[in-house]
Design brief:
It contains 10 helices and 13 strands. It is an alpha/beta fold and about 325 residues long.
């Protein structure tokens, strides 16, 4: 029994909510670390269920569904996301359900978070101490959610920790500015799109480092009650990243620079209309520092070159018809 009278003896499993690239990578990482892992999503993962992981269909948009999804869990990982144009409406309700179920079940909660609460920074390096100055609806919504998560922890209603990631990159990542808009064109000689000012530094977090970082937070409760930046390689300019890709594919990239939001690649008009308020991320430096996490947990980011190598390998397989397109973030 714990201090609230709940029976904790059966809580031995790790439950991952959401089967996009981050949730699926995390589930596989937890299984490799020897944990019993259940991956829960509304539909079966498009990229397949990772080895050693049990998949269960579930909808965590209501408390009943969330409690069913996380029954018996020691640690719950919230990696659920929805389409950009639905986030402001949908994400608070999902939080209500997940946080309410975690409080009732007595499990720890690890939340995958974004940089959106910081809002425009004028290009300053973002640390966990950077003020939350979001001006757009999505950033303000994310900041409000995060404040509520931290309040639940501070008030003793739940044990919560947040892991923030920069833009995803790496194998299995399609819906990212370093994803489906870049690698297919790089490999086939087609169009490669760069957003905003391609001479500004921009941070990318390898999806495998996202998974490893969240798994570490799930294993290390001494990190609870705060925000952590997940291990992220030093930022490079978009132009430098494209040069690194050119060296790997052996041809110049046909780069189209898009100075303002418009549909391209995997991103349609609906997506870009919803993303427009976040386009400042490409018109000012976007640099995330993850030194605090690296020092506290003796972790290191995946080098950017390794990220690009793994992404190119994955996209080669995808284009050859031997890879499976994942659910997108």
């Amino acid at each position: 029994m714990d201090s609230t009278g709940r029976n904790t003896s059966a809580r031995q499993s790790h439950v991952v909510l959401g089967a996009g690239p981050a949730g699926s990578a995390l589930a596989g990482e937890l299984a490799r670390r020897g944990h019993t892992v259940r991956l829960v999503s509304r539909s079966r993962p498009a990229g397949g269920v990772p080895q050693g992981v049990t998949w269960r269909e579930g909808d965590v948009g209501a408390v009943e569904g969330a409690r069913a999804a996380m029954a018996g869990a020691a640690v719950v990982y919230h990696c659920v996301n929805v389409a950009y144009h639905l986030q402001v409406e949908a994400m608070p309700g999902i939080q209500d359900a997940v946080l309410g179920a975690v409080e009732a079940e007595g499990a720890r909660l690890v939340v995958l978070d974004t940089l959106y609460p910081y809002g425009p920074t004028g290009g300053e390096v973002m640390t966990e101490d950077t003020p939350w100055r979001a001006t757009g609806a999505k950033g303000r919504m994310r900041a409000a959610l995060d404040a509520r998560y931290l309040a639940a922890h501070q008030e003793g209603r739940a044990r919560v920790v947040l892991g923030r990631s920069a833009d995803f990159a790496g194998p299995g990542v399609l819906n990212s500015t370093l994803g489906g808009a870049v690698f297919p064109g790089a490999l086939t000689g087609g169009e490669v799109v760069g957003l905003g000012d391609v001479d500004l530094p921009h941070s990318y977090t390898d999806i495998r480092a996202v998974a490893a970082g969240l798994a570490t937070l799930g294993e290390r409760p001494e990190g609870d009650g705060r925000v952590w930046h997940l291990p992220t390689a030093p930022a490079r300019t978009t132009r430098e990243v494209f040069t690194m890709i050119e060296e790997r594919v052996g041809r110049p990239l046909k780069v189209t620079v898009m100075p303002e939001p418009r549909p391209f690649g995997p991103f349609d008009q609906v997506f870009m209309d919803a993303y427009a308020e976040l386009f400042y991320q490409h018109t000012e430096a976007q640099v995330m520092d993850s030194g605090a996490f690296q020092d506290a947990f003796a972790a290191r980011p995946v080098p950017l070159g390794d990220t690009l190598d793994a992404a190119l390998d994955w996209y080669r397989a995808l284009l050859a018809g031997t890879g499976r397109e994942p659910a997108v973030r």
